[in-house]
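Our working data are protein records whose layout never changes between entries. An example says more than a description, so a record of this kind follows.
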Amino acid sequence: MKVAVLGANGQLGNDVVEAFRKNADQVVCLTHSDLELTSSASVEAVLSEHQPEFIVNTAAMHHVEKCEANPAAAFEANAMGARNVAQWAKAAGAAVAYISTDYVFDGCKGAPYVETDLAVPLNAYGITKLAGEHFTIATTPRHFILRVSAIYGHHPCRAKGGLNFVELMLKLSRERDELRVVDDEFVTPTPTVQIAAQLVALSRCTDYGLYHGTSEGSCSWYEFAREILTAAGSKVRLEKARPGEFPAKVPRPKYSVLENAALKSAHLNVFTNWRDGLSNYLATRAEAQVPV
């Protein structure tokens, strides 16, 4: 299969490229320098040149504070960009996978969200990603919407200074005697390699639709940090942050745990528990001899 990966140089995009190549697919790597997502003419020209059968759209404006400061730009990238890709896919008879987010929910449910729960975003990022979902769904029937949560991978996250949460905790543990992390925000940490594997699995089926794609289980950011530092053998003192100690600049859901109900119903779920994902990430990191 010929697969185009948009945002191929990103934290998730790199692993998506690798997963499809390992699957013996022909992969076209497209970055912002190759294709301007917000330009329908650019999307039309570049995708028409390559003629992919399957498109994975990982490209996005996903820095939450920047999206809030410039919602028009966020809408152009996350919503209109998705529409441009979906329009080309429909005309060409290709399938498209759009990567969305747990931030489409407000966190008020207090229990894992399933695909049929009402999406009520709290911020511009979540709103524009939800708009991207709607544009994709309304434009082409051959779509996969995959909502992910708290992702981390071995490739740099450019929007966050190159450090994912795992790497940030390890870096700070080397520099400080004490770390303080919030214990009132709950997520499901999910490694990008598992998301990439899930996308490969979806590309081999025609069960189009909306899916949640995260690791199993959940934890607070404090619990995630504790697991990271314990596994790394760090001696740094870890404490729970006081209420309001780290005020958010933008409203975020306090609880954004997703349940992969649709994947499980279709017998397509490839995700393992979040602790297993972290163990595998740290093992791969050790094999590459990355300093702890």
